[in-house]
Amino acid sequence: MNEEYNEWYWRLYRWLRWELPYQYKYTKYGVKNLYKWFWIIWKDRDWDHYYIFQLLKFKLEKQAKHLAHVGFHNGAQRDAELMMTCVRLINKIQNEDYYAEMHSKNEKITYEMIDEYLNKHNKAKRLLFKIMNDRIEEWWD
Fold first, then answer.
1. Whole-model pTM?
2. Counting beta carbons within 10 angstroms of the beta carbon of residue 63, is it exposed (0 to 12), middle (13 to 18) or buried (19 or more)?
């Protein structure tokens, strides 16, 4: 672009012409996002992985709901299902379901049981990140 068009009056003109008509929409979406994310951010802490997963889970749930409702591409429904699969995997990882399963057997806990728990837990994490690695760039409407 020519230097002349980088002057402040040309930038102002482009903003008035192309951005200003949509500012009400940007403001509306911004306020809605602040409302939706408020309690998630409020409860966020910098302590451990639980809170990272909480943010990711919330975002995936919202995007899956949006894709299932208004997704325009052919695989939108499948993408929404994959996102919800990721949410279920995050729940398993966060809630340590496999650990609770190990304790519910009312047996003496052995190293084999702990090893089995860790294998299942790590398998859930690997599957979560494999799905996201393979598909995340395709998740748009």
1. 0.78
2. middle
Q: 19: which DSSP letter? A: I
The tokens 């990721």 sit on which residue? 86
Q: Cα separation of 116 and 11, whole Å? A: 61
Q: How many other CB atoms are there within 10 angstroms of residue 128's CB atom?
A: 20
Q: Kindly report, residue by residue over 62-95, the tens digit of the pLDDT.
A: 999 999 888 778 888 899 999 999 999 999 999 8
Closest CA to 95 of 116, 63, 120, 130: 120
| Cβ pair 90, 127 in contact under 8 A | no
Q: Residue 81 has which token pair?
A: 């299902």
Chain-centroid distance of CA 130 in Å reads 14
